[in-house]
Write a structure and sequence with these properties.
Layout: H1 8-11, H2 16-20, E1 26-28, H3 29-36, H4 40-48, E2 54-57, E3 60-64, H5 65-72, H6 75-78
Antiparallel strand pairs: 1-3, 2-3
Length: 80
């Protein structure tokens, strides 16, 4: 079998731009750290305090993107 060099999405008529415009459902702790600028200790504290929602998949702990985004919103934006 020969490769066309095109991704399955490209072959099906989808572009990478469409896929990249979707918000993720979950992010890893490392990605949450990159997005938020918070450190591991703070992220684990927020998880323990249940201020960030998590999902376990096997041994991986994933943070729901919605909970991370909601926590990082300025308070005046959430009060509207």
């Amino acid at each position: 079998m020969h490769s066309t060099g095109l991704s399955d999405d490209t072959l099906k008529g989808r572009t990478a731009d469409a896929a990249s415009s979707l918000e993720p459902l979950t992010v890893t702790i490392a990605k949450a750290r990159d997005i938020s600028g918070l450190g591991n200790t703070t992220i684990f504290k927020l998880i323990k305090e249940r201020r960030l929602d998590t999902i376990k998949v096997g041994t991986r702990t994933l943070i729901t993107y919605a909970s991370l985004k909601a926590m990082l919103q300025p308070e005046e934006a959430t009060a509207q």
